[in-house]
Amino acid sequence: MARTCLITGGAQGIGASIAREFSLRGYNIVILDIDEEACQENKDYILQAGGNCVYYAIDIKDEQAIIGVMQELAESDVIIDVLINNAGISLQTPLDSPISTWDIVINTNLRGAYLLVKHGLARLKPGSSIINIASTRATMSEPDWHAYAAAKGGLVSLTHSLAISLGVKGIRVNAISPGWVDVSEWQKSSNRQSVKLRECDLMQHAVGRVGKPEDVAAACIFLSSDDAGFITGANLVIDGGMTVKMIYEK
Ligand code: NAD
Known about the structure:
Layout: E1 4-8, H1 13-24, E2 28-32, H2 36-48, E3 52-56, H3 63-75, E4 80-85, H4 99-120, E5 124-133, H5 146-167, E6 172-178, H6 199-203, H7 213-224, E7 235-238
Parallel strand pairs: 1-2, 1-4, 2-3, 4-5, 5-6, 6-7
Helix pairs in contact: 1-7, 3-4, 4-5
Residues 8-9, 11-15, 33-35, 38, 59-61, 86-90, 108-109, 133, 135, 178, 180-181, 183 line the site of nicotinamide-adenine-dinucleotide.
């Protein structure tokens, strides 16, 4: 029987790439994403490539909407083999910004992931795997990114906490912290703009380039595989060496 991978934010960007990579490996794809136009576009792409995909155009800040999706999946006897909490929003939250901005960032990046696990747990069976897409901003910052850093740091902590709670059920939980990933070519077609990267942008990385969504997708494939059966509670940094490179002004 085909396995199922549920991906939040799977319509565009890194999530769209993850959805396509899992589909290529024979998984049925379930996308939860707030952007219906983008959902339809990525679903069409997956179907044209021979895969199976359904989407639910919901806001993961909405607990009732998540409960509704899980009820529909239960009625169809869907078992989730891989749950990828990828949906995220990055907004600056300077100290004089309204608290509503803080709430949006925390509730999307952190609370949303918790709600997916809380209400999706009954659909996850022994041997399944949860992957939370955090960020290198969990451990390093520019000014004014307080809520995003806190949400991603929280997600890394939530990961080890869930790994301990769910280990007894045979479910592994890991985080991936991407660094700079260029998603410009992975937006819905009505919103796609290529980005011109500078030489200094590339050279900030030990590998001499920024990341691609496929770099993160490949790590998701590995972490969800039996080859990663002894890995849980981990945070895999995928940043081309950006966070270990010391930069001095010359
Ligand atoms: P993106 O904006 O290209 O895609 C995010 C997707 O999530 C979109 O399709 C969007 O519609 C969806 N989404 C946003 N809010 C939602 C909500 N409330 N409910 C449901 N869906 C929602 O972003 P991306 O760059 O692909 O980022 C994906 C994840 O990777 C995010 O968690 C982000 O924080 C993380 N990340 C990205 C980078 C990067 O450089 N791109 C680096 C580190 C971490």
